[in-house]
Amino acid sequence: MTAKPENKSQTAQEQDILEGFPLPGYPATRLRRLRSAGWIREMVAEYNVTANDVILPLFITEGQNASEDVTSMPGVARRSIDLTIEALKPAIDLGLKAAAVFPVVPVEKKTIGGEEAFNPDNLICRAVADIKAAFPGLGIITDVALDPYTTHGHDGIVDDGRILNDETVEALVKQSFVQAQAGADVIAPSDMMDGRIGKIRQMLESQGFENTMILSYAVKYASCFYGPFRDAVNSGGFLKGDKKTYQMDPARSGESLREVALDIAEGADMVMVKPGLPYLDIIKTVKEAFNIPVFAYHVSGEFAMLKAASENGWLDYDTALMETLLSFKRAGANGIFTYGAYDCLKLLNKPLKNSA
Ligand code: PBG
After folding, report:
1. Which of the residues 110, 274, 284, 329 is marked catalytic?
2. End-to-end CA distance of the chain
3. What's the CATH architecture for 49-348?
4. Global pTM value
5. Which pLDDT tens digit goes with each residue over 78-101?
6. What's the 315 CA to ligand 1 centre distance in angstroms?
7. Helices marked H in the chain — which ranges?
């Protein structure tokens, strides 16, 4: 017998075992027996969603005591730092482990080069410092990309319609520095420039942030499902053109392995696949190929679809959310960014009645 590679997935091992071992047929086997009652279904379940699996994305605005609903994401609000801290309390009481912060940058602070991104006193840096002070045990993840800060809504520096790679990477390194300095636990570059992980890791090592983690959005597709997010951070209206010259083409899959391999080699601790549900195949492929934590982003458009259908009475939101999150776990995700994180934590504490 040949040894199995350590990172072979459970399902691939299962297939190996089943080969040459035909299942006995009906009626010796009735697969419905193990589905016949709730207690046995729960005992033989292979996957579950726990409080350790969800990360709550937060939209932060300037000001005090300010809260504004995001129309395309029912139940989600942009909040000032003080109200964000207030909103986090009950989620942390229910076991929330980590939050990801995104800024709503006022129009007057947007520039062509997005310089506000590396102002050490910008909204995100203040939010990180204040949230850390309020909840020292909560993991804080910051987004590295210029789009909320630029007047054109692109993630990078633009010259004559082209997104400049290496110049952008320099800006992202500066942005990562101020975030690490503010106390971010995890730096999460979502910009898709080539080579940025290596440069950010170099900077972190040389500036004394050797324990700051990098969660690379290694596999990020040019997707229409980010629409509501762009409303939420007020960058959508500014976006000129699309992001197809840097985000990945949904018609390609193998390239995702190269993206991940490069980012690991450059110093990423964890990788993200994004969007989530339409890309479960990619999550599974990445998880099977590399033995590192893989995160999934259940993005704004996916969340909006659940909300829209449930508001029409076509789906039950609670059940659909938990089934969705379970599917991420089955595909191999270690953690899921979801706007439903707080709802999920509440549901975990109050099991669904009549669940399918
Ligand atoms: C910014 C960024 C985006 C998202 C996360 N970080 C939008 C984009 O790339 O246009 C999308 C998240 C979501 O849709 O929930 N680079």
Report:
1. 274
2. 42
3. Alpha-Beta Barrel (3.20)
4. 0.93
5. 999 999 999 999 999 999 999 999
6. 25
7. 10-18, 38-44, 81-93, 123-134, 165-182, 196-206, 227-232, 255-266, 280-289, 300-311, 317-331, 341-349
